[in-house]
User: What shape does this take?
Amino acid sequence: MLQMLEGRSLPPLLEREAMLQILQSEVYGKLPGRPEELTFSTVEENLFRNFCAGKAVCSKLTANCMVNGRAFSFPFYATLPTSGNNHPFFIHINFRDWIPDRYMPTEELIDNGFAVLSFSYEDVTADNGDLTNGLAGILYENGSRQKGDAGKIAMWAWAAQRVMDYAATRGDLLDLESAVVCGHSRLGKTALFAAAMDERFAFAYSNDSGCSGAAITRGKAGERVKEIYTRFPYWFCENYQTYIEREAAMPFDQHFLVASIAPRRVLIGSASEDIWADPVSEQLCCLAASPAFPLGFVGPDRPASAGEAFLEGDIGYHLRKGPHYFSRADWQRLIQFVSLHRGR
Ligand code: GTR
Assistant: This one.
């Protein structure tokens, strides 16, 4: 038994399908299905003249979906290198639709050979308890949400899948074997769920995702089910509240989420001052999910020090010094991780 895992008594990992069933019915709700119809339109091609000093073109597009017989669309951005092909690419679920953005150093990503597709999560459905707007309004006409139905994390993950659908039409430029879904904090939880559910994502990166994301809940410091569900009930399905102050009874823990990404790759990023998310419990998740992967976590059985990164295994972990933030330093670790594993 690994020392770090002592005292957490986690449920053993199950087959991927069984874990995904549990995570959907107990935590995030059932992921909405593929739209009945889906087309993409270009709103504006080449948004910024000479973008990235001519090394990339950024275009605004719309995903036009038919869901439950009703039309729903949301905007996203594609920033594609102007030279070469077979580019690995990020699907970044972002807080804003800015390009570049304080959480997205676009030119640096381009300089490292990546393309980046991004969207602002609230263009899909608002980050509040209103279930009548955007995708939520289409799924839950007349307030019809049932206990195991999708919460908003699942809806944002669904949108990441639609952007992946677009990427799949751009095999002329993109390496479809190297799709990376990523996000910060609540959107790191979303990125992990999207990758767990959809095998087209070869890599997932969660940055400071914490409670109900990459952190083991049992024994966790900072935020727990009670705190998160009290403030953000609509992120989850209604069943999740049954575990408030009953975490020992959960038939899962967050290692199910990370293990469901196996045998693909996942990198977990924490920040040393982010006690609310709890870096140690995030690293623990890597250890607990490790057996699901061909080459699991390769790193020591002790908490990381600030600045350390363990990138060799199929599950990587890094701890940046500093506060809750999706920083350039985090992107650089992610680029390192993907570059190391891509094509391996
Ligand atoms: C916090 C929440 C965290 C995290 C964060 C964020 O308020 O408690 O779980 O998701 O928001 O998304 O920035």
About this structure: The pocket of beta-D-galactopyranuronic acid is lined by residues 185-186, 210-211, 223, 228 (CB under 6 Å). Strands lie at 37-44, 56-67, 70-81, 87-94, 115-120, 174-184, 203-207, 265-271, 309-310, 315-320. The longest strand covers residues 56-67. DSSP finds nine helices and ten strands in the chain.
